[in-house]
Amino acid sequence: MLPDIMNEYTETILDFEDDVLKDIRRLSARDMDNVPILRKDAAALLSVLVTMHKPLKILEAGTAVGYSAILLARFCLEALSDEEKKEFRIDTVELSEERTLVALKNIERAGLSSYIRVINGDAVEVFNCIGGQYDMVFVDSSKGHYIEMYDDMKRLLKTGGLLVCDDVIFYGKINDDPKEAPHKHRTIVGRLRAFLDKLAADKDFVTSLIDTGDGMAIAVKKGNLSYDNE
Ligand SMILES: C[S@@+](CC[C@H](N)C(=O)[O-])C[C@H]1O[C@@H](n2cnc3c(N)ncnc32)[C@H](O)[C@@H]1O
Question: Is-above-0.85 flag for pTM?
């Protein structure tokens, strides 16, 4: 895995954050709670992906204080026509009530409240009970639960839709033998590996793993799906 060079280099040359995003990053780093938001190299990659893919409906797990939802909305809205903008929506789910409230304030300050719905709840349960079809699913909640959410991520994604899962390399520990990982990491490494094994073996997705951020899985749901025939 690359050290932090790409992130540091991204910091120095790419300036894609508006004032709201810059403030969230500054406060998140300073905050005693140390709210984890997307690393800047991962944020840059997401901005490129959505500019290419132009999703109209996005589902996110793990809002934190709204950084990624605001970033996604900004770049999508720039890429969409006026007609498409009317349909654009992000549904984003956050477990912490406190963070949900901060996210709502940040989204309002960004002028994006009409586009982003923040749901305070457990993404595992919310993904399981909602319907609809999304052009993009971005998963950035608790890594240990990605495997439980797999079937719902897939069900909720349109054919041709983009799945992005953050933090899948887990500081490089993903390649360790779960039995030899420190006890506190054993379960999470085992679950993340089960998730990545399932995604990699799933013929309904074309998948790539990259070492941006803390590792991202990027997959596109293909047509002619076995899933649709089940
Ligand atoms: C890495 S942070 C998300 C960062 C955010 N996507 C960003 O870049 O601005 C992970 C967030 O997921 C939330 N979380 C953890 N487990 C969750 C769950 N089961 N459902 C919803 N949110 C969860 C945490 O409270 C935390 O705020």
Answer: yes
